[in-house]
UniProtKB/TrEMBL annotation:
Residues 24-275 form the EAL domain. This is EAL domain-containing protein. It comes from Bradyrhizobium jicamae. The chain holds residues 552 to 840 of 843 of the full protein.
Length: 289
């Protein structure tokens, strides 16, 4: 009968659903303790100024070093952190840690931090950022906050208000993963952006085999540049991609072609190397770092 068939179906799906809920609860429990146990870390990926080839700053990217699972990538735990609200304390930790790290860098290097939509719902967001900047003695102009189109469409009034206040303080706002969202051009125009980050799916196509895809990718880069904001191309992996971006007047680039995200010890090394190169250029002598 239909009744027993329904029950059979229910019995069939139940173990899998139960398994998923169980895995989710485990991950959530582990995430809560991870914050207290210091299992989260930040890696940093440089931004390169396309015209000069110089490093202009770093983006902080969250890593979870799980005692049993090993390195858990952000795509695996950030969505759950957003659903459970854990992204608020976790995001505050990211803001404080990244600003403390950037306090050790030369003043001309920016620090970029990714924000989740859920963080904007916390009335603490702006005060946390102001305190993190003050604690590190960092000028607001050195901080760049990365938000996605999807994030701002979600709760645009709340996000708009917070971004407006931060922008007034001098903090830079970047639109991440540009080209992958669904927002209208007029919607984009209303937000106080300083920068667009061209999604790596388009950068990838710039030097791809398909003519059609290459033309679309070029159009997206051109459009981002023509918005009159500064631009960063994400996921640059080849010299050919870089050459096209330079020809299109893209301002900055980021990707494995230059460096993957690295830990803070490597960042310190890169900064020392940069200082030595700078000293050589200006003919100054520096002590070996
Ligand atoms: P995103 O902000 O767009 O970061 C760029 C992602 O592309 C990073 O992945 C980076 O490691 C990767 N990537 C960089 N260069 C290349 C390249 O040349 N080729 C390829 N294939 N990939 C490249 P990751 O670190 O796994 O982060 C994924 C996403 O997780 C980020 O995308 C961001 O949306 C989110 N995320 C990371 N850290 C945080 C955080 O602290 N807070 C929040 N809310 N989200 C974060
Ligand atoms: Mg980003
Ligand atoms: Mg991105
Ligand atoms: Mg992305």
């Amino acid at each position: 009968s239909a009744k027993s068939g329904g029950r059979g179906l229910f019995r069939f799906f139940e173990p899998q659903l139960d398994h998923q809920l169980h895995a989710r609860r485990n991950l959530e429990r582990d995430m809560r303790s991870a914050l207290m146990n210091g299992e989260f870390a930040l890696h940093y990926q440089p931004f390169i100024d396309v015209a000069s080839g110089e490093t202009s700053g770093f983006e902080a990217l969250l890593r979870w070093n799980h005692p049993q699972r090993g390195m858990v990538p952000p795509a695996k735990f950030i969505p759950l952190a957003e659903e459970t609200g854990l992204i608020v304390p976790l995001g505050e930790w990211v803001l404080r840690t990244a600003c403390a790290e950037a306090a050790n860098w030369p003043d001309d290097l920016k620090i970029a931090i990714n924000l989740s939509p859920a963080q904007f719902r916390s009335p603490e967001l702006v005060p946390v950022i102001v305190r993190a900047l003050a604690a590190g003695g960092i000028a607001p102009q050195r901080l760049e906050l990365e938000v996605t189109e999807t994030a701002i469409m979600h709760d645009s009034a709340t996000v708009f208000a917070a971004l407006g206040r931060l922008h007034d303080l001098g903090v830079r706002i970047a639109l991440d993963d540009f080209g992958t969202g669904y927002s209208s051009l007029s919607f984009l125009q209303r937000f106080p952006f300083d920068k667009v980050k061209i999604d790596r799916s388009f950068v990838h196509e710039l030097s791809g085999p398909a003519e059609e895809a290459r033309r679309i990718a070029r159009a997206v880069v051109r459009f981002a540049v023509s918005l009159g904001k500064t631009t960063t191309a994400e996921g640059v992996e080849t010299g050919e991609q870089l050459d096209i971006l330079r020809a299109e007047a893209c301002v900055e680039a980021q990707g494995f072609h230059f460096s993957p995200p690295v830990d803070s010890a490597k960042v310190a090394q890169m900064i020392r190397r940069r200082a030595r190169a700078g000293a050589r250029r200006t003919g100054r002598r520096v002590l070996a770092g």
